[in-house]
Design brief:
single chain, 280 residues, mainly alpha, 2 domains, two-stranded antiparallel ribbon, 56% helix, 10% strand
Length: 280
């Protein structure tokens, strides 16, 4: 295997020559050789959505040139097709804020963008910078919670709820079909009194109806995005109007009703929306 050398504040790092990731990704890959659980692709795709939205918001707010916005957006679209899946090798075990996965995405977007602009991975100076351009107006502390919210919301509304509704409707059809099939009810491991098989299935249907309703009730909180809070929730180093605009962009790109969190300190410091959604 051939390697290239990339440098960061800690010094030079050897990286497989054909890979788009950079020094911080490689350090994490070597320092956290634990488990085999890769960061879920849903989180990576959520990062691609938010990076594209951030680039567009930064361009509209005149802090990022149009050509950089366009090339960053193009690479994010590539990520969303799954074409770059092998460029995200990190496991879920890493520092607490998810910094390495945020930087993994930043580095892949920056290096891939540089290549698309005609450069080479071996070039010492790159056209797109992972921090100054791809991560502009962002921090790991607000991007990772945002990626979690996007990924969870998308999975719930695009997969979980539709499939539970399918199960509910299937069981409801069985409940109607078996409504006159009499059986013995059991309680405390003993035969008790009669009921119909349809009545028994209707209980499952009701459970699922309540479960779907409870899950839908979690979506309002889950839709609130931390992005724009920056490192600690104050929004330091973000342009005026960025938080609202970037949430609007994420909503447009994803087709889902995301909004900016009213209180960024809550959205950065807690994961109550995740806990609630997970419980239901």
């Amino acid at each position: 295997m051939s390697f290239r050398i990339e440098k960061d504040t800690m010094g030079p790092v050897e990286i497989p020559a054909d890979k788009y990731w950079g020094a911080q990704t490689e350090r994490s890959r070597n320092n956290f050789k634990i488990g085999g659980n890769l960061m879920p692709k849903e989180v990576i795709y959520a990062f691609a959505i938010l990076k594209k939205a951030a680039a567009q918001a930064n361009y509209e707010l005149k802090v990022l040139p149009k050509e950089k916005c366009e090339i960053i957006s193009k690479v994010c679209d590539e990520i969303l097709t799954g074409a770059l899946d092998n460029e995200f090798p990190l496991v879920v075990w890493q520092t607490g804020s998810g910094t390495q996965s945020n930087m993994n995405v930043n580095e892949v977007v920056a290096n891939r963008a540089h290549v698309l602009l005609g450069g080479k991975l071996m070039d010492e100076k790159k056209e797109i910078h992972p921090n100054d351009d791809v991560n502009k107006s962002q921090s790991s502390n607000d991007t990772f919670p945002t990626a979690m919210s996007i990924a969870a919301y998308k999975m719930i509304v695009e997969h979980t709820i539709p499939n539970v509704e399918l199960l509910k409707n299937t069981l409801d059809a069985k409940a109607r079909a078996y409504m006159n099939v009499v059986k013995i009810g059991r309680t405390h491991l003993m035969d008790a009194t009669p009921l119909t098989l349809g009545q028994e299935f209707s209980g499952y249907v009701s459970q699922l109806e309540h479960g779907i309703k409870a899950l839908k009730n979690t979506l309002a909180h889950l839709s609130e995005l931390a992005l724009g809070g920056s490192a600690v929730g104050t929004g330091l180093n973000t342009p005026n109007g960025y938080a609202v605009l970037v949430a609007k962009k994420i909503s447009e790109i994803s087709g889902l009703p995301f909004i900016t969190a009213e209180n960024k300190f809550e959205s950065l410091a807690s994961h109550d929306s995740m806990v609630e959604a997970s419980a239901h």
